[in-house]
Design a protein that fits this description.
This protein is mainly α. It has a domain at about 10-85. The protein is built from 6 helices and no strands. The protein has helices at about 10-20, 25-30, 35-55, 60-70, 75-85, 105-115. The chain is elongated.
């Protein structure tokens, strides 16, 4: 059953509370490169944060881990990818203006030149 446009409640809740606007998480994922790595980075970061909030092995911790098992992590990564594309240059990764594809005309020219050479 879908929830607020997401696969399920757990996926929506993770995106809402842990992903949306969390630039530290985005930076970690970008360094991870690749969907599989990105999923592991997100899951590990959230599980690590849970250890600060809940005692490992406690009932609350086991419920939290069971909740995380129902998250569609591919959808979470897609959400992060979309946010990244909206906020960072597709060539160099620097921040950019909304609705622009590059941070500068120079980056746009460089990317086009690289494409033409390939």
């Amino acid at each position: 059953m879908s929830y607020n446009g997401y696969t399920n409640y757990a996926t929506w809740r993770i995106c809402l509370e842990w992903i949306d606007g969390n630039e530290e998480m985005y930076s970690e994922m970008i360094r991870g490169c690749g969907t599989g790595d990105s999923i592991d980075i997100i899951k590990d970061s959230i599980e690590e944060a849970l250890m600060y909030d809940c005692e490992e092995g406690s009932t609350a911790y086991s419920y939290a881990l069971a909740f995380l098992d129902t998250v569609d992590w591919y959808e979470v990564v897609e959400q992060v990818d979309n946010w990244y594309a909206e906020n960072f240059c597709s060539y160099c990764g620097e921040s950019k203006e909304y609705n622009e594809t590059h941070c500068s005309k120079e980056c746009a020219r460089k990317e086009k030149a690289d494409y033409m050479e390939a």
